[in-house]
Design goal:
With about 100 residues, this protein is an all-alpha fold. It is about 85% helix and about 0% strand.
């Protein structure tokens, strides 16, 4: 009879093995969920920071270009304002000859 009982299917585990397997599966799912949540939060924070930095650098570049054009225009206005033709016209605004020389 001993040989007959040895040929039976081996036991696949008892209640303790089933509990351990279930606990391990739960822990695995919990750890994987924490990893996914952490990676998602890190990705969102990185993208938000990158977006803010991109907007900041774009605005700085735009302001620099604007200042370049404004400095050039202000230098031109200053040069025109200090020219002899314009100052002579301002001294005598009603003289058409001085007006035509200053507007050229």
């Amino acid at each position: 009879m001993a040989s007959v009982s040895a040929k039976r299917e081996p036991r696949r585990g008892g209640k303790i093995a089933a509990r351990v397997r279930n606990i391990n599966m739960i822990l695995l799912v919990a750890v994987l969920a924490l990893i996914i949540i952490t990676a998602t939060i890190m990705g969102i924070e990185i993208s938000v920071k990158a977006s803010k930095e991109l907007a900041f650098f774009y605005s700085v570049e735009t302001v620099d270009k604007f200042n370049l054009y404004m400095r050039r225009d202000l230098a031109l206005v200053q040069k025109v304002a200090c020219s002899k033709a314009v100052t002579a016209w301002f001294a005598d605004e009603y003289d058409p000859e001085k007006k035509s020389r200053s507007l050229l």
